Amino acid sequence: MIFLDLFFSFLKIGLFTIGGGYAMLPLISETVVEKGWLTAAQIIDFVAIAESTPGPFSINVATFVGMTVGNATSGSFWGGALGILCTVGGLFIPSFVIILIVYKLSEKFMKSKVINDAFVTVRPTIVALIASAFLSLAAATFLGKGSGGQISVNWFGIVWFAVCFAALRLFGKKIHPIFIIIISAGVGILYYGVILGGI
Questions:
Q1: Which of 44, 51, 16 is nearest to 29 (CA)?
Q2: If you write DSSP's letter for every residue of 19-48 in order, what string do you get?
Q3: Integer distance in angstroms from the first to the last C-alpha of the chain?
Q4: What does the longest C-alpha to C-alpha distance in the chain come to?
Q5: Digits of tens for pLDDT over the chain (199 positions)?
Q6: Rounded to whole angstroms, how far apart are CA atoms 22 and 56?
Q7: How far apart are CA 57 and CA 51, in angstroms?
Q8: How far apart are CA 141 and CA 158, in angstroms?
């Protein structure tokens, strides 16, 4: 049953991912694309939406995945709601249980050299997972295939990425990321919708 598959797939992601939402992204993307639930392009769209909406990033992505797969399976709102319960529940339960255990044993954990050494070693892995997510998103965003099968480059996307990156590095404390997202949405509508799309 697809809803059980959703639950156990996200339970596995929640159980074996350390580092939060961005570290979960490669596993979420690989799982849902491999199972044929969503395409890589849909995952990128979900990431953009999840970044623009309130709440934890990974929970937002899981919500969109659950709603989309549940709706596609049952063709109803309730199927989407059940899909959300399965994905968000699966993602949430391991963290909730582990935090409860850590809280109960916090003093021993904080003073344990073995635990501290383990966390020092895990940190580079988290950076690698986040870098993997970044590279996957970058490749899917900036590269595509044309009608003849040849690789096409999204030059406008690369230039806009450079502009946003420079603005955040130079004026990061003065410009809120939400402002950058809103401006980018407007620029996207203007360039792709009006100039290229002829709206």
A1: 44
A2: S-HHHHHHHHHHHHHHTTSS-HHHHHHHHH
A3: 43
A4: 64
A5: 889 999 999 999 888 876 666 778 788 888 888 888 888 888 888 887 877 777 777 888 889 899 999 888 888 888 899 999 999 999 889 888 888 887 777 766 667 788 778 878 888 888 887 888 788 778 878 887 666 667 788 889 899 999 999 988 888 778 888 888 889 989 988 888 888 776 5
A6: 10
A7: 6
A8: 9
What pTM does this model have? 0.63
Give the contacts of 146 (CB within 8 A, at least 6 positions apart): 152
Sign of CA dihedral 46, 47, 51, 52: negative
Please identify which residue in the block is written with the tokens 């383990």.
118
Domain residue extents for the chain: 2-145, 154-199
Please, which residues have CB within 8 angstroms of residue 35's CB and are 6 or more apart in sequence? 5, 9
